[in-house]
Design brief:
Blueprint: E1 2-3, E2 6-8, H1 10-15, H2 21-24, H3 33-37, H4 40-55, H5 65-71, E3 72-74, E4 89-92, H6 96-107, E5 123-125, E6 131-133, E7 138-139, E8 142-146, E9 156-160, E10 164-165, E11 168-174, E12 193-201, E13 203-204, H7 205-211, E14 225-227, E15 232-233, H8 234-237, E16 241-242, E17 265-266, E18 269-275, E19 285-291, H9 299-307, E20 318-320, H10 335-338, E21 346-349, E22 352-354, E23 362-371, E24 374-386
Parallel strand pairs: 4-20, 6-14, 7-24
Antiparallel strand pairs: 1-2, 2-3, 4-5, 8-9, 10-13, 11-12, 11-20, 12-14, 12-15, 16-17, 18-19, 18-23, 21-22, 23-24
Length: 393
């Protein structure tokens, strides 16, 4: 847990007896999988005990200097790791604004959304092994590229990705799983969602263009997926529950299993910045300002649909929201949209522009909620683009 500029050692607090014995041992492990499996009652109890310790209503921490030294560490001195061992990863495509933009580019405005899009949360199974924590450098991928942009029958060539991109997303971690064959119903969905993180689902657009027919993305999307290391629980986000940009789902109305009686999202303010290799701006130049409310299919509906066939989820599984784009050009969640397929260069600062990512660029995603004096931060999701390997495949 992070509070201000300090990292809080939950293992040390558990050892000192400040958590319920029912779940305290799970906080001594090197990952949060077991704590995620413990369920919402344990998560809520741990959160309330931490609030008491740090608000002063429980003076045990303030009055014990040795405990403070064992528990509190400067964030700059700690090494961040993935919060869980991630067994499976799924990426969705649930922002109507993003799907409309991409569909318009490739199929025209009259056919922007595929016929199924308003009926179910579209998704695909990604690669869990290449999920990395913030600060991990990402190498520009190489692969097969369409040889002639206008004639796919001309075949392919091998080379480095020329259209490397970020995707502004949020990721959800699964808590208690479900048995194989038993779907998670909408009424229980929140009990199975541990919390949310920031996510950058890196994308090789030109590799994807050649390979995606007929089964969808493959090597273009298994390059890397970067997440922020801090997981914000749904209880911490409850005060920021907000309507989605869609407002309602009535045309068409979802099938009964996907109807959410409390249809909503969370007001998470999101920014994406690009910091060129030679830039002296520590936080780069903001190219997008979006919000997690720009979700047509919300985090509960995604989980419910994922399990509708009886697919069994496990504690620590992760799924991405899909690119989060708003309604205005400065709120688009990818360079594909911001540059409109490379036709409109994005100016970072005077004399510096981008259509897609250059080697040495650092992508910096930030997110926070703020309301009535209460602020909840997600930290950062950073990654630098390294040059592609030069050796032959």
């Amino acid at each position: 847990t992070a509070i201000g500029t300090k990292a809080v050692d939950l293992k040390a607090l558990a050892k000192a007896g400040h958590f319920d014995a029912v779940y305290a041992d799970t906080l001594a492990e090197t990952t949060l999988n077991a704590f995620m499996a413990a369920g919402r009652g344990a998560w809520r109890d741990a959160r309330e005990r931490l609030q008491a310790l740090f608000s002063g209503s429980n003076p045990a921490l303030q009055s014990d200097a040795s405990l403070q030294a064992a528990v509190m560490h400067e964030l700059s001195t700690v090494t961040m790791h993935l919060p869980a061992t991630i067994g499976d990863y799924t990426d969705f495509y649930s922002s109507r604004e993003h799907a409309t933009n991409v569909g318009t580019m490739f199929r025209g405005a009259d056919n922007a959304l595929q016929p199924n899009w308003l009926h179910l949360p579209v998704g695909y199974h990604g690669r869990a092994s290449s999920i990395v924590t913030s600060g991990t450098a990402v190498r520009r991928p190489r692969g097969q590229l369409q040889k002639d942009a206008t004639d796919p029958k001309a075949g392919s060539v091998f080379g480095p990705c020329r259209l490397f991109d970020f995707e502004l997303e949020m990721g959800a971690f699964v808590g208690p799983g479900n048995k194989l064959g038993d779907p998670i119903p909408m009424a229980d969905a929140e009990q199975h969602i541990f919390g949310l993180v920031l996510m950058n689902d890196w994308s090789a657009r030109d590799i994807q263009k050649w390979e995606y027919v007929p089964l969808g993305p493959f090597t273009a999307k298994n390059v890397a997926t970067t997440i922020s290391p801090w997981v914000v629980t749904l209880d911490a986000l409850e005060a920021f529950r907000a309507p989605t940009s869609a407002g309602s789902q009535t045309d068409p109305e979802p099938l009964p299993y996907l109807r959410d009686p409390t249809y909503s999202s969370y007001d998470v303010k999101l920014t994406v910045a690009i910091k060129p290799a030679d830039s002296k701006e520590p936080d780069g130049y903001v190219v997008s300002r979006s919000n997690y409310t720009h979700m047509y299919w919300n985090v509960k509906q995604q989980l419910v649909h994922h399990t509708v066939t009886g697919c069994n989820m496990q504690p620590g599984d992760c799924y991405g929201s899909g690119t989060i784009s708003g309604t205005t050009p400065d709120s688009f969640g990818s360079m594909l949209e911001l540059s409109w397929k490379g036709s409109k260069p994005v100016q970072l600062t005077e004399g510096v522009e981008r259509k897609f990512l250059a080697d040495g660029d650092e992508v910096i995603i930030k997110g926070h909620c703020e309301k009535d004096g209460l602020r909840v931060g997600f930290g950062e999701c950073r990654g630098v683009v390294l040059p592609a390997h030069t050796s032959e495949a």
